[in-house]
Amino acid sequence: REVATRTACHMARSLISVAKRTDSLLAKFKDSVQQERRKNKPSERRVQMLEESVEQYTERAQVLQGAVEEIHLLIFAQRYRDTLAAIRAEVCTALAGFVVSWPDVLLRDSYIKYIAWLLNDTAAEVRLAAIRGVRKIFSAYSGANAAAADVPLALQTFAERFKGRITEMVLDVSTPVAVEAIDACRFYATALHTLD
User: What predicted TM-score, i.e. pTM, was given to this entire model?
Assistant: First the structure.
């Protein structure tokens, strides 16, 4: 199970990397279509070629997103409740990394709820991975240039729903978990520009 979970993590990481490049190329092709159409005398042949590329890359993006979704449903949604704490921690760490690297698609309740559920795990190792994941997600939206309007609604909802548990973890019996919880609270306050 452990090797299969690690393999799935690496596969998902690679798929997300390819999907992000595909999304980037798709956006460029869409921009090119718009620019070509704005010209005084647009080339119909060029517009047609660009539109074919948009269709092709849209299809690729959907296939890649579907593959990541399948890995999530078949591996991560099952392994987050594995009997081995190391596997649960691995899944949590990987999932948080995926959410941070591809937030346009993965920063949704259907993904981040697994991280939040592991905040209540009996193993300190898993709670540590979960609170680190939460901190990592919050830190992606905190900083000098971040505005409250930049924080996605899914993250705001997540923060409101689980802020009680996150603040409780400051008093966790495991010192590393408590330290990470303090950091997570700091990033939470910075990202959402509030101190409760």
Answer: 0.85
